[in-house]
Every structure is written in C-alpha cells, then in structure tokens.
Design brief:
- The complex is a heterodimer of chains A (581) and B (658).
- Chain A is built from 19 helices and 17 strands.
- By secondary structure, chain A is α/β, with parallel strands linked by helices.
- Chain A has three domains: 2-91, Ubiquitin-like (UB roll) (Roll), CATH 3.10.20.740; 102-206, Alpha-Beta Plaits (2-Layer Sandwich), CATH 3.30.70.20; 211-569, Rossmann fold.
- In chain A, the strands form five sheets. In chain A, strands 2-1-5-3-4 form a five-stranded mixed β-sheet, covered by helices on one side.
- In chain A, helix 2 crosses helix 3 (108-116) and helix 9 packs across helix 15 (423-437).
- Chain B has five domains: 19-111, Glutaredoxin (3-Layer(aba) Sandwich), CATH 3.40.30; 115-215, Glutaredoxin (3-Layer(aba) Sandwich), CATH 3.40.30; 235-302 and 310-444, NADH-ubiquinone oxidoreductase 51kDa subunit (Rossmann fold, 3-Layer(aba) Sandwich); 448-539, Roll (Ubiquitin-like (UB roll)); 541-652, de novo design (two linked rop proteins) (Up-down Bundle), CATH 1.20.1440.230.
- Helix content of chain B is 40%, strand content 15%.
- Chain B has a nine-stranded mixed β-sheet with strand order 2-1-3-4-5-7-6-8-9, with helices on both faces. Chain B has a five-stranded mixed β-sheet with strand order 15-14-18-16-17.
- The longest helix of chain B has 29 residues, at 614-642.
- The radius of gyration of chain B is 26 Å and the shape is globular.
- The chains are: A alpha/beta (581), B alpha/beta (658).
- Chain A binds chain B through residues 41-47, 49, 57-58, 60, 63-65, 78, 81-83, 85-86, 89-90, 92-93, 122-124, 126, 147-148, 150, 166-167, 169-174, and chain B through 386, 388, 403, 405, 407-408, 410, 556-565, 567-572, 575, 588, 592, 595-596, 598-599, 602-605.
Chain lengths: 581, 658
C-alpha cells in the first residue's frame, strides 16, 4: 500500500494507483480531458497537472503513480493558471459551434469550459477547415472538432484491434483520421462506434437519422412500426438522469406509441427466434456433425464485418442465422403484414439499437432484403431515440406502462439477456440443452459466461458429453480465442471450443457505440444487472418456450432450419478486403 | 580481415603503429563532400597518376575545420605536416606539383598546426605569416615580402620558404609568424622584428621570448581524437593507429561490469545529448533492473539547427562509437544494441553499417566476443526526420515501429524501455568518450572540466563567426575563449550581440555574459542550456525577434502534436511573435507571451514543448527593448527592420548542415 498526502489529506491506495484516481478517493477531483476510465492514460491534454512537494515541476496526475511520501497539491495559483491557459489554448483550436454540435450539452470540453468560465478570447482562434467524413453512414468524423486526446485512436487500435483510426501529420496540423488518409468507409473500420462513445467532444458522432424517421412518421402513406433492442431498455434512462440499469421497457412501449408508431415490437422476441435457429444449428453440427465446429455467433454486425475482413478463415464456422434486428424486420414485412393484411411496401420498420454498426447491417448483403423490400428501413441508436423523445415533448419517465404488439412482441428472459456479454451463449445453451436432451438445465444461469472478463470459458455437459464454450467481448480479445482454434486446427486436433460467442463492444450491446455517453465498467455492470433482473422477472426464460415464437413456427415458418426459415432468417458471409482502395 | 583473437589485440597494444612517412588525406565527411571534397579526391588521383607518384591518397573524416572545407592534410617526407583549406582542383594539382614535387608550401591555403612549439628543436624550413589585426589594411603581404627579402639577404632563401597562411588559429594578435616544423609562433610582430626573427631564430635557432606565443591551444580533443586522422571505413586503421578496441579489451578481461560503472563514476561523464544525466547512473539503473534482455541505444538523431557534432563523429570515427556502445552494453548486461540515426545522415549510416560489418567479421560482434563470454550485436534503425524522435521515449516508439510520439515518464526507459525491457540511451558523443575513459582512466577524464561538469564538450560554432567549426574544449572554458580565441571572433569584425546555445531548446546569452564558463550549471543560470552543443553567434545586425521566431518556428514545425500545450501553445506563441515582428503587436502581447510560455514549460509532456519557449523567454529577458520597439514602432518600424541583413540563424556560412 502507498501512503501519501493529497491537498494535506492522508490517502492510502494500492501500489500503481495514479494520482488522479487516488485523489478521487479523497473527494478531490482533478479535471482531465483525455483520460478515460476504460483506457490507459495518453497524457495528451495537460489539464490534470499537479505539484509534488511544492516542487517547481508540474506532473501529470493521470499517468504518474502515487508514491509513498508524496505530498501532492492539486490546486494552487500557478496550477490553476496553467490549466486555464491550456484550456484556452485548446478552445482557440476548436470551432465555436456548440449550439449546432451533436454533443451539445453532453460535451466534456464544453463542461470544462463552463466550469472555468473562460471569458472573451484573448488567444486568436485558429481552426483548420477540414471536411467531415460521412462515408460510412454509421459514424461521422468531424475532424475540426477533434482535440487530439487520443482516446478514439487507442480505442480503435488497442481495445478493438481494428486499426482504422490513427494520427496523421504533426504539430498544429496533427489530425485524427483513418490511417493512410482514406475515407472511413475505405478503412478497416467495422462501425462499432466505440470511438464515438469515448470521444470527449463532438468529433465523432453517430449519423443522426432522426429526420428520416420524423418524415416517415408524418407520412400518412407509411405504416411505421418499431422494435427496441434488448439493451436499450436498461440504458435509455441515463439520458434522462436515471441510474444505469433502470429497466424502462414498459415506458418505452408507451413512448414509442405516442411518437406515432402504429405497432411496437420487441427485438427480444426475434432474439428468441434467433436462439431457436442458432441452437438448432448447433445441435445439427454438434450431434449430427453436419458442419464445422466451433459454431460462432453472428448477431453482432461489427463482429461480422471484422471477421469478414480479418478472420475470414472462420466463415464456415459462422452461424448463418441473421441477427435479431434483421429477423424482426423480415418477419414484420412478411408474417406480420400477411396476418394483418398490410401492404409491406407501406410498412416502415424502425429499429432502436445500441449500436452504430446496426445502421450498416441494414444493407450488408442482399439477404437483408429477404422480404422483397429493405427489411429494416432505419436503425436509430439509443442516443438518437432519447433526442426524439425530448423533441416530442413526451414526459417519458412519468408515462403509464405500455405493452408491445402481439405476434412480434412477447419475449422470454433468454431474449432479454442478449444485450449483455455472454447472454447469447447463455440463451443458446438453455435451448440447445433442451433440444439435445429434452430436459432443461438444472441451473439455467450460466455463471461461467457472465461478468466483464475479456474472455470467459466454460464447459457444459450435454448427455454426458462436454460442450466447451467461450465468450469474448471487445474485439481485441477475439484473436486469442481464434488463435487457439487455429492452432488446434493446424495440429489436426479437436477444436478447444464447440461454441463461441463474440460481441464487438466491451460488455456486449449494453456497452454499444450508440449508447448514452460516459460508459465505463461501473456503468456496464449496472446495465448488465438490469438485464439479468429482467430475465429473472420473466415467467418464461427459454426462447423455445416463447408462445409467440411457437406460434410463428406453427403458422408461418414451419420447422427451425426449414426451407422457409432458411429463406428468410439466414444469411451468407464473404471475405472482404481490409482496405477498399 | 581475419577474426581477431585476444592475443592479436594484445600484440597490437604492445606495438602501436605510427603514421606512415607519406600520405595525403582528404576529409570526406558530409560537410567536406558538400563543399566538393569528392572532386578534390578525384583531382588528386588523376594528378597523382599523371605525375607517376605513389604517395598514398587516404579518405578520412573531418577534423572540424568546417570554415575551410574541403580540407586536405598532407604529410610529405622532409616537410611539415599541414592542412590545406578551401582546396580547389587547381590547388589539388599544385599540392602534388609544388608541395610533394618541389617541397614548397602553397600560399593562402594553409591552416597552421594548433600544436605550437616553445623551442626550436629543428631547423626552420618554412615560415607561415598572417596579419591577424582586425584593422583595415592587411599587412600579410608586406611581412611575407620583408621576411623573404631578409632571408635572401642572409642567403637563406634556398633553405626557408615564407608562406601566407589561411588561418593560424590566433586572432587579433597583429602579425603572426609561425616557424615550421617546430611550431614556434610569434605574435604582434612588427616590421623591425623581421630582421631579428631571421637572424636569431632562423639562423641561430634561438627563440625570441618577447614575441613567443605561449598560450596553449584551448582545444582538448578527446571525442574528436581520431576525427580526420584515421580512415573511418577501416577497422584496421582504428585498431593499429588509434588503440582501437583496447578499451573494450581492458573491460572484457580486466574489469567486472561493476568496475566499469565505477570507472565511469570516477570520470563523472554526463550525457552529452543535452540533459546532462550522469552516464554511470543511467547504466547502473538499467543494470539493476532484472529482465531477460537489456538494450543499449545510441541516439544519433541529432536535429538542432546548426549542430553537426554527432554527425561528424559518426562519419569520422564510427568504430569509437561502436566500441563505446559495446562497453556500455557489457556494463549493463545488454546483448543487443541499436544505432538510431536520422535518415538525413546517409554517410553516417553507411559508415556505421560498415563498422558493424567489419567488427562482426573481426569477431568483435557476435557470440562470445574474443572468448570473453560476452555476446553482443547491434543494428541500425533510421529516423524518418522527426526532431522529436531524439526524445528517448519517442525514439523507442520509433524503433518499435510506432508513431514517434513521446510517452509519459515514469516509467523511465531504464526501467521499461525498448520492447518493454530496461534500456539505456546514450548520445553519440557520450559513447565516443567512453573508449578513451576506459583506456586512460576515469580520473584522467575528470582532470578536465569544472567541479560539477567534467571532461570536454564538442561545440558546433556557427552563425556570424569568422571560423565556423567544430570545437572541443574542456567544460568551463568561457564563451569568449571559444568564440574569440578558437573561432576568430565575429565575422567581418563586427560587434557581437549574443550567442545562442543549446539550439531550439536553449536561449541567448548576451555579450555581457561572454566570460561565463560554459557548463551545464552556469548556462542554466543565464537562462540557456548547454544542450547538445550548438552555438550560434549573432552580431549587432541580427534582430532578436527574428532569431527567436526562427527557433520557435523550428519547434512548432517539429512538435509531434500529441499534447495540447506544445501543439497549440507553440503555434499561438509563434502567431503572437509574428504579429509583433510585423509591427502589429499590442501592449497585451508580452504578458500573453509569458503566459503561454509558462503553460508550455509546465504542462508540455516532453522536453521539446517544455523547452521550446526558452529562446522566447531569454530574448525577452535580455532584449526586451527590441520587442517593445516593434510594438511601439508599429508597421513602419517593422518594415524598416525587416529589410536589414538576414539573420545569423538563416544565413550561416557553414556548408555542414544538411
């Protein structure tokens, strides 16, 4: 343990704790713009400077570990002056566009500038006009607003192992941009959006598609329907000041109806369908050896894109089942439209997703038009929905409980946990075990795949045969798992895993790139807890027991993996070049 | 070359080889080549063939006389050994015709020896003359004529030649006469002294004590000991004529790593890259870190404008740097080393690569070197032209293949450096000192210098100085001695205004502090730094605001852009200075400059940003009135000032900087 003093307050912390973190423990907040709890310090902004033993030098508290005997001053005349001037310098290199910025009101730079009450500019503004990058349709890079904190680059390179973003040039011309100065769409970007979730300013934002949705809602010719993803229900509250993990499913149903949607569906329902297909697929491969193992989940579009670009030797291992978003879309425009006698051409399906890559998934392959139309018309992120609700004047938090629309609305507890890392695996194992043995697991909570460890492994006995499973989240963690499989493959040995779940974002969808800002592990845990609580509260906790799912197969699809299911609910993968240039 | 053994090295140590009796050396470093030394070499080759001469023609590095490039050194039988400067192909032909053929020296190109004699131990064969008085009306021709006449009168004209010298290394001492080969030098010679010199010194062999120049040369050449004297492309030359690898021999077979560090501690050598961290301590800290691998890196990313010390050493004596690195590696238990050299130094890279190849072939690199059990090898990594990569954490990032940006310290490289392993990074000059220290002992090295800064330091003196050159002096030598006594003072005899030391991280020292000893501590007190050894001389015509802008612009261009205080602060500071120099400044600008400077110093991540404001602050401190004049004078004053002569920083005469 390290014992030291911060602002004359005794502090005791474990070795290696940074001065910044140690100060928080004694209720001293040192401002910073570049340090993020998820990330290693980059030491870029120079705001978090402090003084040790009254010395002449100022040190960065984000990257300096506290040492025994240190006597840290976090605020004195000079420190505050230097901090203020640094902030002034940063503002002098930042466009004055707060009122029209995607981060207005939620910007870390704006907040700090307000705290310091930076008055009239004494330093002349210099902002280079660099055109924004809108090439992906998922994420927009507003280069001019970048303060070069380096979070996105670290996220992209180290946390996600994608290496799309980098720093180019140097000095005042330094800019964050896709490596090689190409567009983001041409880069290895997988649209996970973690960069936007970690950006302190409005330099990386989601592509706001709310105008399109408003237009559709106001179009009398269109029948707008909507689905909400599993994780959105436990995160949207944060945008309205509620603690993370607060489950607002029923308020969401009501609010979406008030927004003007003719029907409100739940992606949890189609998650159950996904499980029925995927569990059947697994049993086919595991018990009947109809395909290669391990089976790898494919419901995360960023992961799918990443695999197609980097790990396409695993294409045959990918579950061909579409993601819940796409399954619901195709079912809405076929099954639901038929049932209600609606013209699918007039149906306008909006999905509320935690994710920027979901915007890309809409047009990923031609299978995304299985209904004959675009299965999903627009995918909005949680952040965009929060904005719509605020615009619409709906007193969201005080709404009466609502309910989803039948035939695509009921869900099981297995569907809801899709939003957490390990959730797809847990849901699939519950159903697969039943399919293989005719019995339910004694304990359906799979503790081995829960929690925030980067790679989680476990073994389940199915008819006495061990099924080895692995769960990875955060794309940097995938390589380790896949390499183990590759090694076994090369050595001609049996795969170390039978079933692998991958989610691109740390924590799974609850930590998605389109979720409310300020994510860190504390929030991830609370959001996940919200989902597990929802699962526990469900009467039905197995996907195959969802009565609406059973009805769907009886009345429309036939059998899981059957010809109709195949036509509507499955997709294909192709190797894609890392760079499109 | 065959593999060397321990006994081979010992045999070499037992009978070191002297200089051969006859040779011509052409100084082919980058500066020399830029001035045409390759052409001179070819001209000499052709001329030699035409005249059917056999005198060996050798390639060497630079002795440091940048002002006189291309430089050729000649040793002919029965002739004093001399340097010829500013050699043209025509002079090259005359060297072979007159110097070698007729034993006559050539007027106006000779740089006199700095090893001046106090006794006439040999009969005079040549007399060098030069009038060094700053007044107009050069009397060199007069003295040459009167000496020659006097010799003729006494019948000595056949035996003794009088030659006009290019440079005698003595300045402002009236007419100077040097008698060769003894090197006895007379200063402030007046017309009546001519007869005495001929009668008493030339004829009778007596030294005239009243005229004798007794001041020893200020330079002490430890780092530059072999520069210009050996062929940098020949390990054989280094082994036979420069006690090459004898320091390594002593270390490998007679000293434990701890003893090596102790010897370094006794030498009190401090890092010559600029920061002045004790070398022994760096080694000990690295050594103390338990790890599977330790690394040693030679920092050859010299980037200060006007500095060319490291390049000269790398090009002129590459084996000494390699030997120094091997000794460092032995001391800290490293088995792998990297030379990080900027790609703009292609010759340095080429020569170090050749040195590595030769050393490997000779068995001095590789496993179990000379049977000692010590294994070591080294590689070259090229810097891609970023000044910031001289900063050690950025340098490491660059070697690892990442963007060359600094990272926070701690952890220091001695704890976690290259590939996460303990790493010691030493500057070229530091490493070049080491073989000599291990050969002659730490106490010998510590015999030079001041109480806190020991040894010698190489400076690249440039700008408005008469003889821009490399100078190696004991630390503690004053600026006045370096500029006036070694380099001949200000160009065209103008008044000196200030000296900029330490490059873009340093500051200016005005003329009133010229007698300050040059050491890490004293320069810091004056608001500058010793830095890596750049020294820019400015005369009264130089605008300090312009000079400051020059250095600041350099740092702004070279900022890696990682941290906000340096990236934006430097840029904004330059804008304010620019505004002032256009006469558009306001009264609030000086406080704003000070505020941005303070922020950059306190909040920048690495040394580049922390020291970039130094030139600004030091010119404000000593020449604040110049800023005021621009602010008060407005645009018309600025236009008038900006028409003045180009500044020292941008008009330096030296061809040596790439």
């Amino acid at each position: 343990m390290i014992t030291a003093r911060i602002n004359q307050i005794d502090v005791e912390v474990p070795e290696g704790t940074s001065i910044l973190d140690a100060a928080r423990q004694v209720q001293v907040r040192i401002p910073t713009l570049c340090k993020h709890k998820d990330l290693l310090p980059t030491a870029a902004c120079g705001i978090c400077i402090v003084r040790n033993q009254g010395g002449n030098k100022l040190i960065r508290s984000c990257c300096t570990p506290l040492e025994t005997g240190m006597n840290i001053t976090t605020h004195d005349r000079e420190i505050v002056d230097v901090r203020r001037t640094t902030l002034e310098l940063i503002l002098s290199n930042h466009p004055q566009a707060c009122l029209t910025c995607g981060r207005n009101g939620e910007c870390e730079l704006q907040t700090l500038a307000a705290d310091f009450n930076i008055p009239m500019e004494s330093i002349k503004r210099y902002v280079k006009d660099v055109p924004r990058d809108c090439s992906t349709g998922s994420i927009i890079l507003e280069f001019a607003k970048c303060i070069k904190c380096g979070r996105c680059v670290q996220v992209c390179q180290d946390m996600q192992n994608v290496w799309a973003l980098s720093f180019l040039e140097r000095g005042i011309n330094t800019r964050m941009a896709p490596a090689g100065d190409i567009t983001l769409a041409e880069s290895p970007c997988v649209k996970c959006g973690q960069c936007s979730a970690h950006c302190p300013t409005g330099a990386i934002v989601e592509n706001d598609e709310t105008p399109a949705v408003w237009t559709a809602l106001h179009d009398p010719e269109k029948i707008c329907v909507v689905q909400i993803a599993p994780s959105v229900r436990v995160t949207i509250g944060e945008a309205f000041g509620l603690p993370p993990g607060t489950n607002l499913t029923k308020q969401l149903y009501s609010a979406l109806r008030r927004l003007g949607f003719k029907a409100v569906f739940d992606t949890n329902f189609s998650a159950d369908v996904t499980i029925v297909e995927e569990a059947s697929e697994f049993i086919e491969r595991f018990a009947h050896k109809s395909g290669p193992l391990p089976l790898i989940t494919s419901c995360c579009p960023a992961w799918t894109d990443f695999m197609e670009k980097n790990h396409y030797d695993f294409i045959d291992n990918f579950s061909t089942a579409k993601s819940p978003q796409q399954m619901l879309g195709v079912l809405a425009k076929t099954y639901y439209a038929q049932k209600l006698g609606l013209d699918p051409a007039k149906l306008y399906v909006v999905s509320i997703m935690p994710c920027t890559a979901k915007k890309y998934e809409l047009s990923r392959t031609e299978e995304m038009h299985a209904s004959g139309y675009m299965d999903i018309d627009v995918a909005l992120t949680t952040r965009e929905l929060a904005r719509m609700l605020k615009q619409s004047g709906i007193d969201f938090l005080n709404l009466a409980d609502g309910s989803p629309d039948s035939i695509l609305g009921d869900y099981s507890g297995a569907g809801t946990i899709f939003g957490a890392t390990g959730g797809v695996m847990e849901a699939a194992v519950r159903t697969a075990h039943f399919y293989a043995t005719g019995k339910k697991l004694e304990k359906i909570e799979l503790e081995a795949v829960r929690g925030l460890d980067g790679v989680k492994e476990g073994t389940i006995l199915v008819n006495g045969a061990p099924v080895r499973i692995a769960v990875a989240h955060g794309l940097a963690n995938v390589e380790h798992v896949l390499n183990r499989v590759r090694e076994a493959r090369k050595a001609g040995k049996e795969s170390p895993y039978h079933f692998i779940e991958v989610m691109a974002c740390p924590g799974g969808c609850i930590g998605g790139g389109g979720q409310p800002y300020g994510v860190d592990n504390e929030r991830r845990k609370l959001r996940i807890a919200g989902l597990y609580q929802d699962d526990r509260g469900c009467a039905i906790r197995h996907s195959h027991e969802n009565p609406e799912v059973i009805r769907l197969y009886e009345e429309f699809l036939g059998k899981p993996l059957g010809p109709r299911a195949h036509e509507l609910l499955h997709t294909r993968y192709t190797a894609r070049p890392l760079y499109k240039r | 070359m065959n593999t060397l053994s321990r006994t081979d090295l010992e045999a070499l140590a037992a009978k070191p080889e002297g200089d051969p009796p006859e040779w011509i050396r052409v100084q082919l470093d980058t500066g020399g080549i830029a001035a045409g030394a390759e052409t001179i070499f070819t001209a000499l080759e052709h001329e030699r063939a035409d005249r059917r001469l056999t005198i060996p023609l050798l390639r060497t590095g630079s002795v440091g006389y940048s002002f006189a490039d291309p430089v050729v050194e000649v040793q002919a039988a029965g002739m004093p050994r001399v340097h010829y400067g500013c050699v043209t192909p025509e002079i090259a032909a005359r060297i072979l015709g007159e110097h070698i053929g007729e034993h006559r020296l050539i007027d106006d190109h000779i740089i006199a020896t700095r090893r001046r004699g106090l006794t006439l131990d040999a009969p005079v064969t040549h007399i060098l003359v030069k009038d060094t008085s700053p007044e107009a009306g050069n009397k060199t021709g007069f003295f040459q004529f009167s000496l020659a006449e006097e010799l003729k009168r006494r019948g000595l004209a056949e035996r003794v030649q009088v030659v006009r010298a290019l440079d005698l290394g003595i300045y402002d001492e009236g007419a100077v006469v040097q008698l060769l080969p003894s090197g006895v030098t007379y200063t402030n010679v007046l017309a009546p002294d001519v007869a005495r010199i001929v009668a008493e010194s030339v004829e009778a062999g007596k030294v005239l004590d009243d005229l004798l120049w007794k001041t020893p040369d200020k330079q002490v050449r430890i780092v530059l000991r072999n520069c210009g004297n050996i062929d940098p492309d020949s390990i054989d030359d280094y082994l036979r004529r420069a006690q090459g690898y004898q320091g390594l021999h002593r270390v490998l077979f007679k000293l434990s790593p701890e003893a090596v560090i102790a010897e370094m501690k006794a030498s009190a050598l401090r890092g010559r890259g600029g920061a002045g961290f004790p070398t022994w301590l760096k080694w000990q800290l690295t050594r103390a870190q338990p790890a599977a691998q330790h690394y040693v890196i030679c920092n050859g990313d010299e980037g200060d404008p006007g500095a060319f010390m490291d390049r000269s050493v790398l090009e002129s004596d590459p084996h000494a740097v390699l030997e120094g690195m091997m000794i460092a590696a032995y001391a800290m238990g490293a088995s792998m080393g990297y030379f990080y050299i900027r790609a703009e130094y292609p010759r340095a890279v080429e020569r170090i690569q050749r040195a590595l190849d030769q050393a490997r072939e000779a068995g001095l690199l590789g496993a179990n070197i000379l049977g000692s059990g010590f294994s070591f090898d080294a590689k070259i990594r090229l810097g891609a032209g970023a000044f910031v990569c001289g900063e050690e954490t950025a340098l490491i990032a660059s070697i690892e293949g990442r963007r060359g940006s600094p990272s926070p310290r701690p952890p220091y490289p001695s704890v976690r450096g290259l590939w996460g392993m303990p790493t010691a990074i030493n500057n070229v000059e530091t490493l070049a000192c080491i073989p000599a220290i291990l050969l002659k002992g730490g106490a010998w090295f510590a015999g030079y210098g001041t109480e806190k800064s020991k040894g010698t330091k190489v400076f690249a003196v440039t700008g408005k100085v008469r003889n821009a050159q490399l100078v190696e002096v004991p630390i503690g030598t004053t600026l006045r001695e370096i500029i006036y006594e070694v380099c001949g003072g200000v160009l065209d005899g103008k008044e000196l205004k200030a000296v900029q030391t330490g490059g873009p991280s340093g500051g200016v020292i005005p003329r009133q502090h010229l007698d300050a000893p040059v050491s890490y501590e004293s320069l810091q007190q004056l608001g500058s730094i010793m830095g890596s050894g750049g020294m820019l001389v400015m005369d009264k015509d130089d605008s300090m605001v312009e000079v400051t802008k020059f250095f600041l612009r350099f740092c702004v261009d070279e900022s890696c852009g990682k941290c906000a205080p340096c990236r934006i602060g430097g840029y904004q500071l330059l804008q304010v200075l620019d505004r002032i120099s256009r006469g558009r400044g306001t009264a609030g600008d000086v406080p704003l400059i000070q505020r941005i400077c303070l922020t950059m110093q306190k909040a920048s991540l690495c040394g580049l940003g922390q020291t970039a404001p130094n030139p600004v602050l030091s010119t404000l401190r000593y020449f604040g009135e110049e800023y005021q004049a621009f602010i008060e004078g407005g645009p018309s004053y600025a236009r008038k000032m900006n028409k003045a002569t180009p500044t020292a920083a941008t008009s330096t005469k030296v061809s040596a900087t790439p």
